[in-house]
Amino acid sequence: MLHKYTYFRLLAFTLLLLSACQKPATTTQTQDSLTTLAFGSCNREDLPQPLWQPIIQNKPQVWVWLGDNIYGDSDTMVVLQRKYNMVLQEPGYQQLQQEAKVIGVWDDHDYGKNDAGKEYKMKEESAQLFWDFIGEPANSPRRRQEGVYSAHTYGPAGKQVKVILLDSRYHRDSLVRINRVYQTNYTGDILGEEQWRWLEQELRNSTASINIIGNGIQILPEEQVFEKWANFPKARKRLLDLIAASNAKGVILVSGDRHIAEISKTTPPGMSYPLYEVTSSGMTHVYSGNVVEPNKYRVGDLIKQLNFGVLNFHWNDKQVKVEMLIKGEENKNLLEHTVTY
């Protein structure tokens, strides 16, 4: 028979393990101040990839994948694995992996099916391939959660940046497309209740000066006819209300998917400062021709060239200045905007 003290120690240890399996960990990756974070999306593995060296020239400490990291589009995991391996064997990306911490989330094509949501039947298997690609340890609690969301904190107290990455595929309700236009799902959800609870905890408990929320699809723009949070107005309002109610400092949104780049800005009800979204999309291919697209929140130009995003952080004791950049081939600045928090 176990001694009572030994029994309670084992019980406590078991409960701790169960808790770790149920809750994805928020990880503090470094105590060094974060000065440069880069991000991008829409990276077709069988096309030329000219942006890795320009990305590396910016010396990012963190690289964030924002979806369509491959164009898998298959129920066969062997196909997805082969395409992930093509990116992993790309010399420029290998160099970036040596110089920066890589984190990220998926969108539909690397999820496994174009425009898919929770109905995709291979999502559990696909999630494990995604974690392999990102480099998530085999024993990580994240591998046992439903969805590939994660949170990461960088920097010392007073100069922290938190990156919260949302999975907008695994739990997303259905979306109907008629005549190439996505219809509004007025009551549909995107994140699922467990992820919503997790997000609220991450925002309310954040001590970071800058909180970056990233996912595959655009959050602020309402007028474009492609996939977006505005197709699910109840979920979009819930997200913006949560950001405002959390009182999290310096929230910045980042997204991909669109094969264009732009910066959007609005001030949702209840927020004491403007909310920006930086969309960077088209690492290997972008829209061609005279694309004209309305966006009442747009700041600056619509970019239709190969691009990646960069956030530069300039710290002092009382504030942080954030440079929001869209860059292209030869590290050319295509769009820039600076905000002080």
UniProtKB/TrEMBL annotation:
Q: Which UniProt keywords apply?
A: Signal
Identify the residues that the record assigns to the PhoD-like phosphatase metallophosphatase domain, covering every copy.
53-268
InterPro entries from the UniProt entry: Metallo-depent_PP-like, PhoD-like_MPP, PhoD-like_sf
User: What SUPFAM superfamilies does this protein's entry cite?
Assistant: Metallo-dependent phosphatases
User: Which N-terminal residues, if any, form the signal peptide?
Assistant: 1-25
Q: Which CDD domains match?
A: MPP_PhoD
What protein does this entry describe? Alkaline phosphatase family protein
Origin organism lineage? Bacteria, Pseudomonadati, Bacteroidota, Cytophagia, Cytophagales
